[in-house]
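Example record

The entry below shows one chain as it appears in the dataset: sequence first, then structure tokens.
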Amino acid sequence: MADLAKNLISFVIFLPPLILIHELGHFIAARLIGVTVLEFGIGFPPRAIKLFEHQGTEFTLNWLPIGGFVRPLGEDFVRPVGDNATEEERAAFEARQAERNTLEQRNIKTKSVMEAGPWQRIFFMIAGVVMNLITGVALFALAGLIGVPIVKSATIEVRGIAAGSPAEIAGLHSGDVITAAAGLPLALSGDAYQAFANNTGKAIPLTVKRGDQTLTLMITPSSTASADVGGVFVADVTPDSPAAKVGLQDGDRIVQMDDKPMLANKDLYDFGAAHLGKTVAMIIERDGQQQTLTITLNQQTPALGVAPYNPLATNAPTGLELLDLKLYAPVTSQPLGVAISDGISQSWRIIISTLSLPIDLIRGKISLQQARPVSIIGITQMATQVTQRAVDQGAAYPILNFAALISVAIGVTQLLPIPGLDGGRILFVLIELLRGKPISQEREGMVHLVGLMLLLGFMLIIVVNDLVNPISLK
């Protein structure tokens, strides 16, 4: 019951406000270009109550709490309704306005979406995306102003090596620190993975620190290398948690819980969820030596109080499992200019990574799990973990950064040229500009309706997947 309450709170905090912000962008744009807005809905129909009416627009509260919608004259959520339906809506709107007492209300002029020019319609359709992107930048900047942890330095440490892999053949050892690859200095494991992906099949030099020694080792990344490195590593320990009380440390490898081997993060999360409040035996490996600890788990999640490092993120071209060891400065407030600049940079990185995701998947730069689409359920699962992390740390930046990420992601997704989305509607306007005349509203409406049905079917599959395979953040 407590977990359900946390999920509901996390859902309400993150998704509905960000979707409403998107719709607010459409609403403002419609007002600016003179398009009549029949309804601005909070939540999705069926309607619960009509809140009020302003300048002919009905503001309503609806039963399904998943954001909101703007219904302009001539459209039904995501598609044009056709000339006949538009004229019926216009007549009903004008009749309603004629009943008003003031001259101002009687003289309100009506304008449907299709009566707006092509560039006005593009402005109306893209406004929600722009609003989401602005919100993302603002939230990232706000996190910086309030205070975020700054990485002072970072090193890339080898934590695992797959048997028979290019990494083993090159002579790399667990505990080695990689500082350069192919002559380029490295700061984070992502830089190393990029260097390996760009040099598949080529022998490249690695600069490695091993104790007091600096070595140069040659490695040949291969697309067929094994990535079979098991184990769950501790990346962070929450103060006053069960893990902290038994002395668990960053870098420890959790080998086993009772008689259950820990091969992936999900094993650890599933075991913890199934043994809340119980005392169990934990086998860990530290500095090559195994030891057994007795740990009493929390009564509710998070059971252990650790942030595990995902061992399945092993780099397939090399068989290497790398861990970023980051040294953070205290949480520090950024100057306004730096916070805004950083917010723009982070938003831009999200846009680029989202758009390049299919190419990165095909080229093997990311795994299917990393490219996994998520539903409202999956976002709520992540939001719950982020909220808990913010509570544990007593800091706002995890919530603000995650909300910013979701806002930017909503904007980018809506811009994809898929029927039923804003990008699909913009595509029809661009075709109209090329043809010199619009596609019939009935035909366009049918395409968007079919696209929306397919999207809903796809989302249903993703929802089921998120329920069966819950998402666990590192």
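Notes for this example: The two ends are 24 Å apart (CA to CA). Residues 225-229 have pLDDT under 50 and may be disordered.
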